[in-house]
Write a structure and sequence with these properties.
globular; four-stranded parallel sheet; alpha/beta
C-alpha cells in the first residue's frame, strides 16, 4: 500500500486535519493508502519510506518523491486537482 505523509510545523493540528480529510476523501473514492501526519522536524526520517508528501509549510528542501499542496485541503481551493494527482500516484503501481 502506498504511503502518503503530511507535515506541518508541529505535526499536531494542521497536519492531522489534512491527513484525516485526505484519508476520508480517498476512502470515498475507494482508493487505499496509508496517510500519516508528522511534524516538519521528523520529515527527513519519514520521507524515506513515503511515496508522496503533502506539504503544508514551505521548505527549501527538494525531495525525490512527488510533493502536493496541502493548503488546498485546508481551504478547498484546488483540492480536487491535488486529490486527483494523489490518486494518480497511488494507482501508478
Amino acid at each position: 500500500m502506498k504511503k502518503i505523509i503530511v507535515a506541518c510545523g508541529s505535526g499536531v493540528a494542521t497536519s492531522q486535519t489534512v491527513a484525516s480529510k485526505l484519508s476520508k476523501l480517498l476512502k470515498e473514492k475507494n482508493v487505499q493508502a496509508n496517510v500519516e501526519a508528522v511534524d516538519i522536524k521528523s520529515l527527513k526520517h519519514y520521507i524515506k519510506d513515503a511515496d508522496g508528501y503533502v506539504s503544508i509549510v514551505k521548505t527549501k528542501e527538494e525531495y525525490d518523491i512527488p510533493v502536493f499542496n496541502g493548503v488546498a485541503f485546508l481551504t478547498g481551493m484546488g483540492q480536487e486537482q491535488e486529490l486527483e494527482k494523489i490518486i494518480s500516484l497511488i494507482k501508478e503501481g
